[in-house]
Known about the structure:
This protein is mainly α and about 190 residues long. It has one domain. The chain contains six helices and two strands. The longest helix has about 35 residues, at about 100-135. The two termini are about 25 Å apart.
Amino acid sequence: MAEEAAIPREDAPPPRMPxxxxxxxxxxxxxxxxxxxxxxxxLINSDIFGRSFLHHPIAGVPELVAFSIVGIVFLQLxxxxxxxxxxxxxxxxxxxxxxxxxxxxxxxxxxxLLGGALMLIVAWKYWPSVVAAWQHPERNFMGNxxxxxxxxxxxxxxxxxxxxxxxxxxxxxxxxxxxxxxxVRP
Length: 186
């Protein structure tokens, strides 16, 4: 009986994607995003304390919060996709899982391939903005000159890296689904 439990069922979902160097990279990106959230919470609470009790707010907190939210989202996007936490409607996929598991994998292969292609197009179209922000930081900043400014090029680079990492993750998922549709287990 114990031996039967160890044998994988034919209709069982495929195992999770193997963790390799890319998985570790996006894991680090996710961890940096999480630490950034903690730092942001400390900054916001310090600003509130400074405003309320010291009557002296921290300069640039709204700009840093806006900057941070975008940066955190793109740092964590590829990991969210890899872990299966992306928002999607699973009604059709659940029906196919029970009735036609290989068709489900074919559909997922197409979905992930299109997602990867779309993210590569976004990266390609976004790259000129990254270059412009890098080459002309005096024109690409957030905040009020004379009070508080922050250059946009670090944020643009993080967004670009997040887009590329998400594109790669989509393509890896597509390859994994393609192999599962063929009956090849990783």
